[in-house]
């Protein structure tokens, strides 16, 4: 795709490759890191006509990089073909632990507060922090149980709408009070089902974040991921010619090289920073320094915690705010 991928005399193909490069860029594909031969094709000629090119490569998208972040490929030596075989490696998929995430709609279910109160009454021996952590673990199990009993909220809305339609059809046909009461009951069930689904979807979609946050965050993180893949070092050659291929050996060689370059491993050597004083526009005073390490009061923690917008981009908080701050309680 550029001059670095050609060795030997070859015709200028930069113009003809413009569309291909544009296609790769527009589709968001990136090349996997590789080790081995830098060129994957040879024209089997000798002397001045000998020509090497990197024609073969592995391109992946963002889904692939997220699923197999450690994948790469080996450009092996050709055997019976004039093309080098490409061998895919590092396909050990990382199984991510699914973190518990509190759903705000649970606070709207009947009996929610009663279940919390019952668990919070448990007597647990230990420090206050240990007691709190144990009770939160019990609550986590209870919340999972409630979510499982509630089922799929979207399916619940569809079923409630079906029952409401049938009840309205019966009332329209027979016009009796009993069917009117049935319509009212089905309407209440349908309204609650829709309310819970909207709460769930609103939390999932992070509407407040999409409205006020970085609109290009997806592109931004995709660019970071692609850069990380490109800049990974899979192998390194030492001064004595030894080739290191394992991640541990490569890391240790980098550390050893810079330790020798910077004068050994004196980690506790005190560095005189006086020569930087004239470059600094502002230095931290003794008063400011003491404020940085000042103890935080419980009132400040509570104020900061309850200042968080419930519908803002949610972090994986150990104690979800909607669980603590239930409207009307």
Order of strands, main sheet, comes to 1-5-4
Q: Stretches where pLDDT falls below 50 for ≥5 residues?
A: 313-318
Q: What share of residues is helical?
A: 40-55%
How many helices does DSSP assign?
Answer: 12
Q: Helix and strand succession? A: EHEEEEEHEEHHHHHHEEHHHH
Task: Assign the structural class, choosing from mainly alpha, mainly beta, alpha/beta, alpha+beta, or little secondary structure.
Answer: mainly alpha
Mean pLDDT equals 80
Largest sheet report: 3 strands, antiparallel
- Radius of gyration from the alpha-carbon trace, in angstroms: 31 Å
| Beta strands, count | 10
Give the amount of beta strand, in percent.
Answer: 5-15%
N-to-C span: 64 Å
Structure description:
The protein has 329 residues and is mainly alpha-helical. Among the domains are: 3-89, no CATH class; 104-212, no CATH class. Helix content is 47%, strand content 8%. The chain has 12 helices and 10 strands. It has helices at 18-27, 62-67, 112-120, 128-150, 153-174, 177-205, 207-212, 217-230, 247-262, 286-292, 298-306, 321-324; strands at residues 6-8, 30-31, 34-36, 41-42, 51-53, 59-60, 72-75, 86-89, 236-237, 243-244. The strands form 4 sheets. Strands 1-5-4 form a 3-stranded antiparallel beta sheet, with no helix packed on it. β9 (236-237) and β10 (243-244) form a beta hairpin. The protein is flat.
Throw out a few tags for this protein.
12 helices, mainly alpha, 8% strand, three-stranded antiparallel β-sheet, Endo/exonu/phosph_ase_sf, 329 residues, flat, three-stranded mixed β-sheet
Short description:
The chain has 329 residues and is mainly alpha-helical.
């Amino acid at each position: 795709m550029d001059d670095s991928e050609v060795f030997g005399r070859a015709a200028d193909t930069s113009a003809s490759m413009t569309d291909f490069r544009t296609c790769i860029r527009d589709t968001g594909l990136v090349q996997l890191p590789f080790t081995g031969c830098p060129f994957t094709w040879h024209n089997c000629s000798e002397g001045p006509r000998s020509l090497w090119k990197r024609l073969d490569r592995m391109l992946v998208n963002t889904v692939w990089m997220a699923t197999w972040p450690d994948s790469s490929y080996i450009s092996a030596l050709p055997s019976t073909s004039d093309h080098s075989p490409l061998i895919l490696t590092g396909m050990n998929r990382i199984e991510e632990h699914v973190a518990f995430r509190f759903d705000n709609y649970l606070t709207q279910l009947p009996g929610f507060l009663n279940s919390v109160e019952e668990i919070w009454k448990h007597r647990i021996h230990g420090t206050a922090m240990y007691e709190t952590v144990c009770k939160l673990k019990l609550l986590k199990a209870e919340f999972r149980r409630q979510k499982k009993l509630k089922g799929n909220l979207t399916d619940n809305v569809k079923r409630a709408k079906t029952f409401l339609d049938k009840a309205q059809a019966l009332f329209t046909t027979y016009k009796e009070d009993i069917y009117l009461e049935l319509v009212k009951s089905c309407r209440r069930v349908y309204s609650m089902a829709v309310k819970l689904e909207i709460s769930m979807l609103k939390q999932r979609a992070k509407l407040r974040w999409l409205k006020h946050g970085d609109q290009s965050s997806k592109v931004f993180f995709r660019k970071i991921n692609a850069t990380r893949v490109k800049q990974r070092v899979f192998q390194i050659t030492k001064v004595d010619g030894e080739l290191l291929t394992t991640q541990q050996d490569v890391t240790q060689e980098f550390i050893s090289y810079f330790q020798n370059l910077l004068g050994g491993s004196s980690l506790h050597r005190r560095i005189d920073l006086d020569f930087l004083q004239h470059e600094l526009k502002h230095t931290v005073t003794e008063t400011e320094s003491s404020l940085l390490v000042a103890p935080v009061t419980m009132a400040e923690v509570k104020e900061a915690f309850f200042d968080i917008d419930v519908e803002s981009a949610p972090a994986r908080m150990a104690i979800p705010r909607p669980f603590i701050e239930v409207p009307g309680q």
